[in-house]
């Protein structure tokens, strides 16, 4: 699966890092009580840690003007898609159409991020804050469509208009996870020296995060962007984002309009057989694949139910 245009979909496997009811982050290495802002300065800014400077500070006010004009224009053009998406969410699942979530923005300021809801309304009722995973069972059928087309991200244009986000920049993270990541990843907080973005360098060049090593790679890209934020770099990233979005949309609609491939049919058949329960008087097929030289052969075992033999 290709990396998301608008951001990393989640960190599969990172669900081991969770918050308890008391606000404690737990995992095998780190335990910390409270929010990321409550930690002592000794822990959040170790001695010797350098501050990353933004080279082209003159560009930041211009970037804000471009963001505002671009976000207003895109929101007007994309409002029909947002309206249709909101109606589909309301008709197919319980809960609000729009989803609000607190994220950490520029200079550690928290803000409310808006998205079209793509998961169940009670997605974190039992687990608390956790990262989403690939093929996350909490995602609704319509939510899968919204995520594939990235329509669920379009409400963030309102965040850009309000000044919380930018069209291009590092991806904003939730405060529950900033505490752990800032603890584990060097210079993680330095990526917050510019407004977070809907798209960005790390979002376009890297696949979704899977572990702390991949987060470190993302931070490297984010800090490079922070230090080298420039009109030409932003222009290239905007063009790259548009190209990737068009490519993903064409691929999505092509797959929706064409017949399933042989591999898709085989995988679907195996899932159907594995999930099927023996019924009275009906034989159940169990597929076992074995490799014979370079060709795959299938040994089919027929298990007869008690009703068939009687």
Q: How are the SSEs placed, and which strands pair?
A:
Blueprint: E1 18-19, E2 24-26, E3 31-33, H1 41-44, H2 59-92, E4 98-104, E5 110-116, H3 141-149, H4 156-162, E6 166-168, H5 175-184, E7 197-199, H6 201-205, H7 212-228, H8 231-257, H9 262-275, E8 284-292, E9 295-303, H10 306-309
Parallel strand pairs: 6-7
Antiparallel strand pairs: 1-2, 2-3, 4-5, 8-9
Explain this structure:
By secondary structure, this protein is an alpha+beta fold. The chain folds into two domains: 14-257, no CATH class; 262-309, no CATH class. The protein is 42% helix and 15% strand. The protein contains ten helices and nine strands. The chain has helices spanning 41-44, 59-92, 141-149, 156-162, 175-184, 201-205, 212-228, 231-257, 262-275, 306-309; strands at residues 18-19, 24-26, 31-33, 98-104, 110-116, 166-168, 197-199, 284-292, 295-303. The strands form four sheets. It has a three-stranded antiparallel beta sheet with strand order 1-2-3, with helices on one face. A two-stranded antiparallel sheet has the order 4-5. Strands 6-7 form a two-stranded parallel sheet. A hairpin with a 2-residue loop joins β8 (284-292) and β9 (295-303). The chain is globular, with a radius of gyration of 23 Å. The N and C termini lie far apart (49 Å).
Q: Determine Rg (CA atoms, Å).
A: 23 Å
What is the domain tally?
A: 2
Briefly note the structural class of the backbone: alpha+beta
Helix content: 40-55%
- The separation of the N and C termini measures 49 Å
Low-confidence stretches: 8-47, 289-294, 297-310
Order of secondary-structure elements: EEEHHEEHHEHEHHHHEEH
Shape: globular
Helix count equals: 10
Report the major sheet: 3 strands, antiparallel
Side-by-side strand order of the widest sheet: 1-2-3
What does the average pLDDT come to? 75
Instruction: Tell me the β content.
Output: 5-15%
**Strands, total number:** 9
């Amino acid at each position: 699966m290709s990396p998301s245009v608008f951001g990393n979909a989640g960190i599969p496997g990172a669900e081991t890092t969770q918050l308890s009811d008391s606000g404690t982050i737990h995992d095998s290495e780190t335990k910390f009580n409270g929010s990321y802002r409550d930690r002592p300065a000794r822990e959040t800014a170790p001695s010797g840690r350098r501050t990353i400077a933004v080279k082209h500070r003159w560009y930041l006010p211009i970037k804000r003007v471009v963001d505002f004009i671009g976000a207003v224009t895109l929101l007007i053009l994309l409002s029909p898609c947002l309206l249709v998406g909101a109606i589909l969410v309301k008709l197919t699942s319980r809960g609000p159409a729009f989803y609000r979530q607190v994220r950490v923005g520029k200079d550690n300021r928290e803000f409310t991020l808006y998205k079209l809801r793509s998961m169940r309304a009670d997605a974190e009722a039992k687990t608390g804050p956790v990262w989403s995973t690939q093929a996350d069972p909490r995602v609704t059928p319509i939510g899968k469509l919204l995520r594939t087309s990235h329509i669920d991200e379009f409400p963030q244009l309102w965040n850009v208009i309000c000044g919380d986000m930018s069209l291009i920049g590092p991806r904003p993270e939730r405060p529950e996870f900033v505490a752990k990541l800032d603890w584990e990843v060097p210079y993680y907080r330095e990526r917050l020296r510019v407004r977070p973005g809907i798209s960005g360098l790390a979002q376009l060049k890297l696949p979704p995060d899977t572990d702390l090593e991949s987060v470190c790679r993302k931070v490297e890209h984010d800090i490079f962007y922070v230090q080298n934020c420039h009109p030409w770099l932003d222009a290239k990233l905007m063009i790259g984002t548009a190209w990737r979005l068009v490519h993903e949309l064409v691929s999505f609609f092509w797959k929706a309009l064409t017949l399933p491939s042989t591999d898709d049919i085989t995988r679907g058949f195996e899932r159907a057989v594995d999930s099927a329960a023996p019924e009275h008087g009906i034989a159940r097929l169990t597929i076992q694949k074995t490799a014979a030289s370079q060709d795959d052969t299938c040994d089919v075992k027929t298990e007869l139910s008690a009703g068939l033999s009687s």
